[in-house]
Specification:
Elements (H helix, E strand, L loop, with lengths): L7 H17 L4 E8 L2 E9 L12 E2 L4 H14 L23 H5 L22 H7 L17 H15 L3 H13 L16 E3 L6 E3 L15 E2 L1 H11 L9 H7 L4 E2 L7 E3 L4 E5 L2 E10 L2 E8 L4 E7 L7 H15 L15 H4 L3 E5 L2 E7 L5 E5 L7 E7 L2 E4 L8 E6 L5 E6 L2 E4 L22
Antiparallel strand pairs: 1-2, 1-12, 3-6, 4-5, 7-8, 8-9, 9-10, 10-11, 11-12, 13-14, 13-20, 14-15, 15-16, 16-17, 17-18, 18-19, 19-20
Helix pairs in contact: 1-9, 2-5, 2-6
Pfam families: Beta-lactamase, DUF7586
Organism: Kutzneria buriramensis
Protein name: CubicO group peptidase (Beta-lactamase class C family)
Length: 456
C-alpha cells in the first residue's frame, strides 16, 4: 500500500512551528522531523551549520537520549536471563556505596541516587574511569530512600553502563554498536562527532552573540549523555521505541519499558518514567521517549506508539529552546490536520474451530463478560455492561493465554475441560468464568447453593 505524502498545508504548519521556535528562541540551528508509517514523513531545518541549512544527516549531540540505548542493553540482558531487574546492583557490580539499590530502580530513576556525579561538573570536564568515579561515591550520594520517589540520576546511568560492560566483557559502546546500532542500520550514531555535525553554543542572554561549548569524552559518565546522532538515525530509534524492534528486543519488552514506573508530578501525572524511557501525557496522547541536554545542545524524541507517529528535534544551544514542546506540537499538528485512517477491516483467513467455540458470553459470578477472538489466536475479555476489568490475552500454549494489559496483565487464563473433553470453565488467576451465572456444574470456589436462584 503506497504511503501518501503529507498535505502542503500540513507541511507548512510544521515548518511554521519549527521556524517560530528557532527565531523566537534565538537558536543557532535547529532540525526536526515527523515519523509516520515507518518513515520520515516530514523534516525541516533552520539556521546554519558550516554555512549550510542542516538536514537529516547533520549530527547533533543527543545528551540523555543516550540513556534509552543503555536501558535497551540492560533489558536485553534481562531477557537473556543474565540480569534480574529486582536484584541489587551490587550483585553485578560489587564494591559501590549503592549496591543495595535494584537494577529496576536505577533504570526508572527511583534509586534515590544523587543527580550528578561527585567532583566537577561532569558535562563540561574530561571524564574519569569507573574505578575512580565509584571511589568518589559515598553513602552521602544516596539522597532518598530507594523506591521512595522519582529523582533523576545521571550517575545511575553511568553505573548501568558499567553493569553492561561487566556482563558483556566489552565496553558499553562496543556492546551498543554490536547489539543495537549495526542491526538497526544506525551508522551515524557515534560517541564523538563526525562531519557533517553542528558545534555546540551558548547564546548570550542579552545579545545575539555565541560562546562555543566544550565537548569532552565523559568516559565513565558517557552512558548518561555521550552520543551524537542524526534525524535519519533517530527516526529509526523512534520506530524502535514504538515497537518496530527488528529482533533487537521483543516488542513486549519495549512495551514494558513504556509502562509508568514512577511519576514526576504525582498530583497531575503528566510526566513520568518507565524503564529507561521518559513518559508524557499530552492532549490525550501517551508519549514515550527521552529529552536530552548537554552544554551546547538540546534534543528530544517523542513516540506515540498507538499511532506510530513520532516527533524528533535537535538544536545546538545550551538553553532556551523548548525542544520537548516542539516535538509534542509536531505530533499534534499531524494528528489534528491529518488523523490517521483506521486500518481496513478484513475477515480472518483461517480460524481454529475450538477457539471460535470459546467466543461469546462468560460469567464471573453474575457479571457478564464477552470473549472475542482476535488475530493470531489472541483473545479479549471485556465487561458486557458497565465498568469492570478488561484485558487482552496472548496465547502461550494450547488453550492457555497470558494477560497483556489491565488488571490481568501477566496473569494466566486457561481452559478447563471435563473428563469427557467438554468445556467446563475458564480459570483466570483463580477466578472461574462459566457459560451460565454461577454454573453449579463448574468448580465454583465455595460451591453454589443447591437451591439455585430464588425469588424473595
Amino acid at each position: 500500500m503506497p504511503i501518501e505524502p503529507l498535505l502542503p498545508t500540513t507541511e507548512r504548519a510544521l515548518l511554521q512551528r519549527l521556524a517560530s521556535e528557532q527565531a523566537a528562541k534565538r537558536v543557532p540551528s535547529l532540525v526536526a522531523a515527523v515519523v509516520r508509517d515507518g518513515r520520515i514523513a516530514w523534516s525541516g531545518g533552520r539556521g546554519r551549520v558550516a554555512g549550510e541549512v542542516p538536514g537529516v544527516d547533520t549530527q547533533y549531540r543527543i545528551g540523555s537520549i543516550t540513556k534509552t540505548f543503555v536501558a535497551v542493553l540492560v533489558m536485553r540482558l534481562r531477557d537473556e536471563g543474565k540480569v534480574a531487574l529486582n536484584a541489587p546492583y551490587g550483585k553485578y557490580v560489587p564494591g559501590t556505596a549503592f549496591g543495595d539499590v535494584t537494577v529496576a530502580q536505577l533504570l526508572a530513576h527511583a534509586a534515590g541516587l544523587t543527580a550528578e556525579s561527585p567532583g566537577q561538573w561532569w558535562e563540561r570536564t574530561p571524564g574519569v574511569e569507573w574505578t575512580e568515579l565509584s571511589e568518589r561515591v559515598t553513602e552521602a550520594e544516596l539522597k532518598h530512600r530507594p523506591g521512595r520517589q522519582f529523582h533523576y540520576t545521571n550517575l545511575g546511568y553511568g553505573a548501568l553502563g558499567e553493569l553492561v560492560a561487566r556482563l558483556r566483557g566489552v565496553s558499553w559502546l562496543d556492546a551498543l554498536n554490536a547489539e543495537i546500532l549495526q542491526p538497526l542500520g544506525m551508522t551515524r550514531t557515534t560517541p564523538m562527532p563526525e562531519k557533517p555535525h553542528a558545534d555546540g553554543f551558548a547564546v548570550h542572554p542579552w545579545a545575539d552573540v555565541l560562546l562555543p561549548e566544550p565537548a569532552h569524552d565523559a568516559v565513565a559518565m558517557a552512558p548518561a549523555g555521550q552520543l551524537w546522532s542524526t534525524l535519519n538515525d533517530l527516526s529509526r530509534w523512534a520506530r524502535f521505541l514504538g515497537g518496530d524492534t527488528d529482533a533487537v528486543l521483543h516488542p513486549d519488552t519495549v512495551a514494558e519499558m513504556r509502562e509508568p514506573a514512577v511519576v514526576e508530578d504525582a498530583e497531575q501525572w503528566t510526566s513520568g518514567h518507565g524503564l529507561g524511557l521518559q513518559l508524557a501525557r499530552n492532549r490525550g496522547r501517551k508519549l514515550a521517549g527521552h529529552t536530552g541536554s548537554m552544554p551546547g545542545f538540546l534534543a528530544t524524541v517523542w513516540t506515540h506508539a498507538e499511532s506510530g507517529t513520532a516527533g524528533i528535534a535537535m538544536a545546538n544551544t545550551t538553553t532556551g529552546a523548548d525542544i520537548p514542546g516542539l516535538c509534542t506540537d509536531l505530533i499534534d499538528i499531524v494528528g489534528t490536520l491529518e488523523p490517521q485512517l483506521p486500518a481496513e477491516w478484513a475477515p480472518l483467513t483461517e480460524v481454529d474451530p475450538e477457539l471460535l467455540a470459546l467466543t461469546g458470553t462468560w460469567y464471573w459470578g453474575p457479571a457478564g463478560r464477552s470473549l472475542r477472538l482476535l488475530r493470531d489466536g489472541w483473545i479479549s475479555l471485556t465487561p458486557i455492561a458497565g465498568g469492570g476489568r478488561a484485558s487482552r490475552f496472548r496465547p502461550v500454549g494450547r488453550e492457555t493465554w497470558i494477560g497483556l494489559d489491565g488488571y490481568y496483565a501477566g496473569e494466566t487464563l486457561r481452559v478447563v475441560r471435563r473428563p469427557d473433553g467438554s468445556l467446563s470453565h475458564l480459570d483466570l488467576a483463580t477466578f472461574i468464568f462459566t457459560r451460565e451465572p454461577y454454573d453449579p456444574s463448574a468448580e465454583i470456589p465455595g460451591g453454589v447453593d443447591p437451591d439455585g436462584w430464588q425469588g424473595r
